[in-house]
Amino acid sequence: GHEGYYRGDCCFGAFVGILEALRDKVGFPFTQIPAEMMGFGAGGVSGWGTTCGALIGAAAAINLVTEKDLARKIVSELMGLYSVTPFPSETSNNYAANHEFLVTEYKSDKVLPQSVSNSPLCHVSVTEWCKAAGIASKTPERAERCGRLAGDVAAMAAELLNANLATAFVPAFQFSQEAQGCMSCHTLGDNFAAGNFIQGKGECLSCHEPHQ
Amino acid sequence: GHEGYYRGDCCFGAFVGILEALRDKVGFPFTQIPAEMMGFGAGGVSGWGTTCGALIGAAAAINLVTEKDLARKIVSELMGLYSVTPFPSETSNNYAANHEFLVTEYKSDKVLPQSVSNSPLCHVSVTEWCKAAGIASKTPERAERCGRLAGDVAAMAAELLNANLATAFVPAFQFSQEAQGCMSCHTLGDNFAAGNFIQGKGECLSCHEPHQ
Prior knowledge:
- The structure is a homodimer.
- By secondary structure, chain A is mostly helical.
- Chain A is 52% helix and 0% strand.
- Chain A has 2 domains: 2-166, no CATH class; 177-206, no CATH class.
- Chain A is built from 7 helices and no strands.
- In chain A, α2 (53-65) runs parallel beside α6.
- The model of chain A has no long low-confidence stretch (mean pLDDT 95).
- Chains A and B meet through α2, α3 and α5 of A and α2, α3 and α5 of B.
């Protein structure tokens, strides 16, 4: 993941980190999948700051080895865990400080500040980190932070996949009480007047004002 | 796109619509790419309502036939066009009304209301449509709307790719004056105090309150 970020940014990085493990362990057909096809996801999909590219890359890799319904459960769990996890992880920070990642020259080898995004969106995740760190977005430190995050997200995806191999996947992530309150009305449903004009889930109040 | 949505929802649908055209016209290596790997993108990435899955599927297909830098330019343009286009298109509405899509049974064959999202996010796009139509989110009409949108987005991506084959790609999409104002400070940059703590772009004011 981290080394892949250096080669092709977050989405390619998270994808190739898992794909190359599959190529090494399994070989065909994973040797036929061009990792470069996920380059588009960088910067929250080609710079737009929407879904974090590392999530998209990891999600595509998850879906390479699981059928649709299971993939969606695992990806949804990954989105949830991402939202509540402080990035970069301590593990990633230590790898960098000890020069244990697979790159020779580091954008930064400092232990970097951590932040929690409460959102799977790139522009929220990056801004929360920039504000926590007091560091601007076009800096070696912010790029390094996203590289470590790409490694962290690939590792989280691998853990979810391995746990599912051991026993049937059981989602554990839960939204806050507040968000569950929002989503008790604002959800996929057939009653427009009751607020069922939504397709989505998340910590609503991290973007929206609450109403009565 | 539309028929693919019926098989595997928006992300798979937009992806497979382009992929199958490539398989038919070119064959190998596109015959080696499992379209099922994009099933995860449904509902704005596994139901979260983040980036529209049709955009992700079309973006992956664009990146299958273009290298990274060009792919990102074309995908960014697609995100912009998506944000300002009324969906479903008249063309799609007419196809459905005349039963010209590749499905035999329709979720709905009505001419559906159109809406503009001002955003590449699924949950914004769906909610704007539900509100314009007065129709709830878990209905055959809303599903059909997203199926037509998947066809529309695949067609837009194919048009952008074909235009690029004819002559080098030139982006045309422009953000509103307001958003350009936001992004003159809130952009990828190295000056934190000036507001460079962002990675992303979009119609900021469709989610955020303006400030002085």
